[in-house]
Amino acid sequence: MVFTILGCNCADSEKEDFELQVKCRNQAKHFFEKEVGGEIVLNNMGYISSAYSNHYNKKENKCFVLVNKLVVSTALSSRKIRSIEKNWMR
């Protein structure tokens, strides 16, 4: 999935370009946390692992966010999944 979340005036200097890249990074992080909800979600059917990356395109004057999701279905019992979750959190 690719999302565009930022449109703004083109940068005229390296400082402005850097500031737009930082703004893009911050907005991408906020978007990921709000819309996707985190990196790993466990339930009794398996788990979903998510990650994102962002890129500010100066020519198009846009911030692009790429969200990757890996869905793994497992036959593990919910008790076993809770055990795995506890070990991951250490």
List the defining traits of the structure above.
2 helices; alpha+beta; 4-stranded antiparallel beta sheet; 90 residues
Could you describe the 3D structure shown?
With 90 residues, the protein is of the alpha+beta class. It has one domain (2-88). It is built from two helices and four strands. The chain has helices spanning 14-36, 78-88, and strands at 2-7, 40-43, 46-57, 62-73. It has a four-stranded antiparallel beta sheet. The model has no long low-confidence stretch (mean pLDDT 76).
Would you kindly provide a brief summary of this structure?
The chain has 90 residues and is of the alpha+beta class. It has one domain (2-88). The chain contains 2 helices and 4 strands; from the N terminus they run βαβββα.
The tally of helices reads: 2
- Count structural domains: 1
Succession of helices and strands: EHEEEH
Which percent range fits the helix content?
25-40%
The pLDDT mean sits at 76
**Which stretches are poorly predicted, pLDDT < 50 over at least 5 residues?**
none
Cross-sheet strand order for the largest sheet:
1-4-3-2
Cα(first) to Cα(last) distance is: 31 Å
Strand count, sense and barrel status of the largest sheet are: 4 strands, antiparallel
Instruction: Bin the strand percentage.
Output: 35-45%
Number of strands: 4
| Helical/strand content category | alpha+beta
Which outline best applies?
elongated
Radius of gyration, CA atoms, in whole angstroms: 18 Å
